[in-house]
Amino acid sequence: MGRLPEAISHYEEALRVSPTNAKVHYNFGMALWQAGQVQAAIGHFEQAVRSDPDYTEARVNLGIALAQTGSNQDALAQFTEALRLRPDSPEVHCNLGLALFQAGKVQDAIEHYQQAIRIKPDYVDAHFNLGLALEKLGRTPEAIEQYGEALKLQPNFAAARNALTRLGAGQ
């Protein structure tokens, strides 16, 4: 965090020079987010998206930040638009899946986690999140398989190991 205040100061100056620059707003938002200023970060991500509606990374991080603050419907809207812009992005599918899961749309979440895995078979978070969704639906053997895959891909993944232990399939 040592240079974060300096970075924030530079972004403030850059916005004085170029107040609608999407990249500057995005980077400023990232710095603010890292500094724990989520609401301020959201404002800059929103400005980045207003300045460049096709800025997928800004939409994704806006969606994540919105979800962190409990604005799930707004987060879903950002992830849905990001998916329209980048339908082959495993990260977008995984984030949309997470927002759907949090909204109680577990089957829809599963479809997006599976799509993320089809695109990027070694995507650890997608395997783990798919395991959570399958477990939520009582599909324990399939959940165990996904947790096991996550653990195989990342052997020190404590949450996957704990899930397997919880389900009586500890490795």
Secondary structure: elements and pairs:
Layout: H1 4-17, H2 22-34, H3 38-51, H4 56-68, H5 72-85, H6 90-102, H7 106-119, H8 124-136, H9 140-153, H10 158-166
Helix pairs in contact: 1-2, 2-3, 3-4, 4-5, 5-6, 6-7, 6-8, 7-8, 8-9, 9-10
Describe this structure in words.
- With 171 residues, the chain is mostly helical.
- It has two domains: 1-86, Tetratricopeptide repeat domain (Serine Threonine Protein Phosphatase 5, Tetratricopeptide repeat), CATH 1.25.40; 100-171, Tetratricopeptide repeat domain (Serine Threonine Protein Phosphatase 5, Tetratricopeptide repeat, Alpha Horseshoe).
- 77% of the residues lie in helices and 0% in strands.
- The longest helix has 14 residues, at 4-17.
Question: In a few lines, what is going on in this structure?
Answer:
This protein is an all-alpha fold. The protein is built from ten helices and no strands.
CATH superfamily descriptor of the largest domain: Tetratricopeptide repeat domain
Main CATH class of the largest domain: Mainly Alpha
Choose one word for the global shape: elongated
- Distance between the first and last residues' Cα: 37 Å
Approximately what portion of the residues adopt beta-strand conformation?
A: under 5%
Q: What fold name goes in the CATH topology slot of the largest domain?
A: Serine Threonine Protein Phosphatase 5, Tetratricopeptide repeat
Class based on secondary structure composition and strand pairing: mainly alpha
- Helical proportion? over 70%
The number of helical segments is: 10
Model regions low in confidence, pLDDT < 50 over at least 5 residues: none
Radius of gyration, in Å, reads 18 Å
